[in-house]
Amino acid sequence: MIKLFATDLDRTLLPVGSQPYDGSMSILNKILKENKMIVVFVSGRHLSLIKDAIKTYNTPSPDYIIGDVGTTLWVRVSEEFVRDMSWDSYIKKNTKNWNVKLFKEKIKERNGLRLQEKSKQNIFKLSYYIDDIKNSEKIIKDFKNIISNLCGCEDATVVYSIDETLNQGLLDVLPKAATKQGAIEFLREKLDIKKNEIIYCGDSGNDILPLTQGYFSIMVRNTIPEVRNEVFNIAKEKGILNKIYIAEGYGSLNGYYVSGIIEGMIKFKFISEKYLNCNTRNKI
Questions:
Q1: Low-confidence ranges of the chain (pLDDT < 70)
Q2: Does one domain contain both 170 and 215?
Q3: pLDDT in tens, 186-233
Q4: Which domain holds residue 78?
Q5: How are beta strands 216-219 and 168-175 bridged, if at all?
Q6: CA–CA gap between residue 98 and residue 172 (Å, rounded)
Q7: pTM to 2 decimals?
Q8: Does residue 282 lie within any of the structural domains?
Q9: Which residue, 174, 90, 72, 87, is CA-closest to 127?
């Protein structure tokens, strides 16, 4: 039985890419309501942008929000979201050598890096753009070397993903404890939920960790090949390929974005195929 449904937002749940959207968000709303799952949004966005997306795309109402690539955790209380400060305390306790000011000073805007907007930074997140993604491998290697020399990689991790709509690289340095995966595990233990009672849905580089941790994992059809390949390689090495599904389109579902999530839930047999015949589709 699945108790917790967790999903990335942009280009996973939300139809913000170049692929066609088939209007299936309302079907997912129906599925989650009828199956009484705990809903968790896991995103690189900060809270205000996540709230905007909930209204714009008529998404399910999340019980928890993991924002800023895992560095913030919010709990829904009535119609408001309240920050879970126990997550902040956990991060601080487990990343004693974390020093975002030092990292920013030493890294600066060099080696093809461009600092992201102030709204996309916080005390546990330092984020850059890579405009020349063809040169991203060398840039990331240099970036990791700088971080390693500053803290020995004991307390920091580097996460890379691509915004395919802008053809732009996104590079984050985070406390090792404060990734998307770390936040999900923190929440899982807090709620006393087992790994095989969780679905995780994603499409990008910062989803690779949670997609390969033993949850039932769904990659939507528009997931880039590099992410697909890495997820499959890691899952094969860990012996968990049976918990990985990549959407390809099924019946009335085209497999892109939220449609691929529904397809995966059907293929894992967590829900019946009756939802393929739902006529409650909404267009944005």
A1: 109-111, 151-154, 279-284
A2: no
A3: 999 999 999 999 999 999 999 999 999 999 999 999 999 999 999 999
A4: 4-89+178-277
A5: unpaired
A6: 14
A7: 0.91
A8: no
A9: 174
